[in-house]
Amino acid sequence: MLQVGNVSAKAGEKTFGYLETTTTRSGLKLDIPVHLMAGAEPGPTLLMQGAVHGGEIIGSVALLNFVEKADPTVMRGNVIAVPVVNRAGFELGERMSRVDNKDISQLFPGNKNGSASDLMAYVYFQEAFIQSDVFIDFHAGGRTAYERYVLFDAEDAPNNLTEHEKRRRKLVVAYGLDQAAFFPAGTFSPSDAKDALENVGTTQITIEFGGGTGWFKNGEDNVRDAERGIWNILKAMRIIDGEFESDGPLCTVYNAGVVIWKPPVDGLFIRDRKFRDELKAGDVYGRLVDPYTGALLAAMPTPDDGIVIPSGQEWPTVGATSIGILGSVDRVEDRRTMDLYLDFD
Description:
The chain has helices at residues 58-69, 87-92, 116-127, 163-174, 193-199, 215-236; strands at 2-4, 7-9, 13-19, 32-38, 41-49, 76-82, 134-139, 145-153, 179-183, 203-210, 250-261, 267-271, 278-279, 284-289, 296-301, 306-312, 316-317, 322-334. By secondary structure, the protein is α+β, with helices and mostly antiparallel strands. The strands form three sheets. The chain has a five-stranded mixed barrel. Strands 15-14-12-17 form a four-stranded antiparallel sheet, with no helix packed on it. The longest helix is centred in the middle third of the chain and has 22 residues, at 215-236.
């Protein structure tokens, strides 16, 4: 029996329901939609979520496609699929939850004495994360950037990997994309989520997939490859059998430690470089111009050498934000010689 809150599935069964979490002061329910697939045979549990940032929906579509096709009668283990975590943000196309203006992805393991999003994260963590062996968190560039890589946490000691890090290296490559990246410690604000997950035995990878103004042009291909990665992870976990499918034999892993920040001036953003371009320190990535006169307000050079990983930004860019991230090659993994299968006790 697989159970998440009041939603349950028997062996070989696929079910759907809502995980009851909390209600806002105005009566808005923040219940989380949950698809459960309980394998016919015992095995590990995979948790997948989409739209924890409300405007990032590639994973949501891929998860729904997967749920429609998945057959739990041939599975060894369980799958928990949540197509939309942040329903308040999703309905408005916003990254945060308008309920309390919090980023739900940064709140785990949650707080039962906190605000509505804190409590929602707490219930979700207790009911779903604690029983999961692997967690796939789908993100995208939203309306701003185009992204296509597997993101994972920086390793504390690459020559002395923990069991979580060993598993994660396999998952990163097994997913099937030709690019992966990690942010060195201190690149962005820290979160307790990584430690919370590892403390309960869950290994996480994050998929940064799609987005940008070309979503409708590229969306079908992005959804297809996002779904392909889900099936690959099931194979790596031995939940199902089958051959891995990928972009190709190699996966380039980037140290994505070069961030180009927007200066304290607002204007029309003109991107001069695109996805996968190689830049040298001082090269201009993009410019801010006056949207009415065309006068240059600010140039945005890269502080160091690197290759463009995510690429884009909304045209009338406002406020403090990163407008480009560059990476340097850390290593290249070869799927033809790497053991991609995970073992669970």
